[in-house]
Amino acid sequence: MITIIAEAGVNHCGSKERALEMVHAAAKAGADYVKFQTFKAEKLVSKSAPKAEYQAANDPTSGQTQLEMLKALELTINDFKDIADECNRCGIGFLSTPFDLDSIRELEALNMDFWKIPSGEITNLPYLRTIARQGKPVVMSTGMSSLPEINAAVQALCDAGLQRDQITLLHCNTQYPTPPVDVNLRAMESLRELGCNGVGFSDHTLGIAIPLAAAALGAEVIEKHFTLSRELPGPDHKASLTPTELAEMVNGIRTIEQALGRKEKVMTDSEKTNVSIARKSIVASREIRKGEIFSDENLTTKRPATGLSPMQWDSVIGTPARRDYLPDEPIDKI
Q1: Phi, psi of 301 (to 5 degrees)
Q2: pTM recorded for the entire structure
């Protein structure tokens, strides 16, 4: 079953109450997990760190530094405890991505099912080692990374105690929103060759078409940002789904999941009743008298498939009719 992560991220705008609303929205949409981001701004960025271009473009008038922007989006570990409790009440899994070592240690107490490593930490060796030492499965996004960098990160996790079958790799493009031409979903095939537990897709495109395509291509995990409103202030809202769109994506993925089926080509129970309706029988194309030789001139094929199969055509042609036939009458077994 495809695991669907509804990425709340920092779209709560620093409000625990809004974060709780997002838990309810993600649960209602049918996602498996709702994921947040845990960080201490001072431990994440330096005072001089600029905003990313997309962050500045989404909030062009504030003049904030990246540190100031992130500081306003922080939630406390006690906030996350309340959020995790609400997830449990709503029947949806709680996740939060840590962005610094202190946040890893704090989140450890919340007993998440697995750790989610963001693309930006894939070259952070101390971070990778600290995550691995927790001993739980890892889902790691791979935006901005080459295959050698990804493999080095996987090896670092394994050297610190994980097995490759505990690691799932998400193909990702770290641009918000990602232009479709830069998505390159087939890169999942290369990630699969690294021999980890599985592959998936962390999506930053607009709309739901591309995550649905990822599901059809075999993604085992799909992560997508959502927001309560794209009109809210903050860096990620514009590239996020509304709750209604999130529900549409979840329903679409579940439909695709059912449709993927298995490799065998078999007749399904639902189509068996249509066999006789859609296929044909060998029938008389005109009146045929007893003893007349069956030929291309006096035989044809028509629905329904209640007589001889047209695949027996060659065994019928050239044999004598055992009785009279009217036009459209099925030919008896030879």
Answers
A1: -125, 135
A2: 0.89
Q: How does 23-33 read in b/e, with b if 16+ C-beta sit within 10 Å?
A: bbbbbebbbbb
Q: Which tokens is 304 given?
A: 């329904």
* Cα-Cα end-to-end distance for the chain: 51
Domain residue spans of the chain = 3-260, 266-334
State how far the Cα of 137 lies from the Cα of 196, in Å rounded to an integer: 11
Task: Tell me whether domains 3-260 and 266-334 share a fold.
Answer: no
Architecture of domain 266-334: Alpha-Beta Complex (3.90)
At 89, the amino acid letter reads R
**Which burial class, exposed, middle or buried, applies to 231 when counting CB atoms under 10 A from its CB (0-12, 13-18, 19+)?**
exposed
Give the model's pLDDT for residue 197.
97
Nearest alpha-carbon partner for 13 in 73, 83, 80:
73
How confident is the model at residue 54, as a pLDDT? 63
Query: Under CATH, which architecture does the 3-260 domain have?
Result: Alpha-Beta Barrel (3.20)
Write the pLDDT tens digit of every residue in 186-225. Answer: 999 999 999 999 999 999 999 999 999 999 999 999 999 9
3-state helix, strand, coil in the chain (%, to 5): 40, 15, 45
List the beta strands (DSSP E) in 121-264.
138-141, 167-172, 198-203, 221-225
- In this predicted structure, the answer to whether residue 164 has a pLDDT above a threshold of 90 is yes
